[in-house]
Amino acid sequence: MKIVQITPYYLPHTGGIERYVYNLSTYLVDHGHTIDIITSDVPSIDKRDDNGSFKIYRYKCIGSPLGNPILIGLSDLHKRLKEYDIIHIHGVYTYLALRAILAFNHQSHQKLILTHHGRTVYPQALKNLLAKTYDNIIVRFILGKIDCGVVLSKADKDHLCSLGLLEEKAHIIPNGIDTQLFHKVDDAHVASFTRAYNLTHKKIVLFLAVVSERKGIFDLIRAFESISIENVHLIVVGDGPDLIKAQTMVLERGLSDSITFTGRLSFQQLLTAYSSSSLYVLPSYREGMPTTIIEALVMGVPVIATRIPGVEDNFSEYATLVEPGDPVELARAIEYVLNNGDTRCKLGASEIAMFDSKHAFEMYSTLYQ
């Protein structure tokens, strides 16, 4: 089959959806399908490129309000979409998703699939009001046009069905990772990593995500103001729209001795960061099914995350959950896990297999057929 993946961002832009689309597309090519990708030119590179396995068409972005790229030059989209058997849209809260729906004119052999990567929830009441309004107008319209909706959790399935998606059109396909790639590194690499960041003999708490308010970085910094355990250090891996604001907050609150920003790390360095850490924390306000939690669990690192749809559905048995937006509860949970350990992160072979991306990709292949 000829399949197009439509996503607001794509590699080398960093994020869970970008990696999700890449891994899915690679699997599908390996199984005989032809794959193209339509996305934005963020970061700015050639409009069309070819990674050797599939073509990537990039449209110019003129702005990204609330992280949503607004694209121009889409007048040829309706013609381009006629080429494909499957049109697969990733994310319902995007300008590109809406434009693709409007441009798509069903041919008899074509099917339109949407993967919903989690609800839009913000710390601010006004933004949440706007998101709910979008749900009740735009999302309802989009759901009425698709042949099939894929979600990562039962909570998101219930949410989309409440907005008009028919039950028989809703499919739960959980997220996953290539579990064979995630393994503990040797002690020499750990020692080198901790020396490089002056973290020898420290209890390391790891935050690995886009550095943004939505991911809860400011709540995590506030939590570190009240942690009483000695020799605890937070390392923040990644970059994002709120990186400078987060760094400034750490300086203003006198937390530079307790919090380090590493920027982006290579994959080998990420494995070393996981292997060096006593705890992984993701205090997000919204998620689909975050792969970093899966990575930490597969690496045997205890996890603290927020009690939100997508996370609670998929990880309540394995992670310590706290309420989003509560730095005090977050600090107490960090202290408890560091003081007492946490055995819920221990996955058996069957659980690791459940979180392997091949399981999800096989489900997609069946759904396409």
How much of the residues is beta strand, in percent?
15-25%
- Counting helices, strands and paired strands, the structural category is alpha/beta
How would you spell out the order of helices and strands?
A: EHEEEEEHEHEHEHEHEHEHEHEHEHEHHH
Q: What is the count of structural domains?
A: 2
- The CATH topology of the largest domain is Rossmann fold
Report the uncertain regions.
none
Write down the CATH class of the largest domain. Alpha Beta
What does this structure look like?
The protein has 369 residues and is α/β, with parallel strands linked by helices. The chain folds into two domains: 2-172, 3-Layer(aba) Sandwich (Rossmann fold); 179-353, Glycogen Phosphorylase B (Rossmann fold), CATH 3.40.50.2000. The chain is 38% helix and 19% strand. The protein contains 14 helices and 16 strands. The chain has helices at 16-30, 77-81, 95-103, 125-143, 154-162, 187-196, 217-225, 243-252, 267-276, 291-298, 311-315, 327-340, 349-354, 357-368; strands at 2-6, 34-40, 48-50, 55-59, 61-63, 70-71, 86-90, 111-116, 148-151, 170-172, 203-208, 232-237, 259-263, 279-282, 303-306, 320-322. The protein has an eight-stranded mixed sheet with strand order 3-4-2-1-7-8-9-10, sandwiched between helices. Helix 8 (243-252) links the parallel strand 12 and strand 13 (259-263). Helix 6 (187-196) packs across helix 9 and helix 7 (217-225) packs across helix 12.
Q: Layout of helices and strands, plus pairs?
A:
Layout: E1 2-6, H1 16-30, E2 34-40, E3 48-50, E4 55-59, E5 61-63, E6 70-71, H2 77-81, E7 86-90, H3 95-103, E8 111-116, H4 125-143, E9 148-151, H5 154-162, E10 170-172, H6 187-196, E11 203-208, H7 217-225, E12 232-237, H8 243-252, E13 259-263, H9 267-276, E14 279-282, H10 291-298, E15 303-306, H11 311-315, E16 320-322, H12 327-340, H13 349-354, H14 357-368
Parallel strand pairs: 1-2, 1-7, 2-4, 7-8, 8-9, 9-10, 11-12, 11-14, 12-13, 14-15, 15-16
Antiparallel strand pairs: 3-4, 5-6
Helix pairs in contact: 1-14, 6-9, 7-12
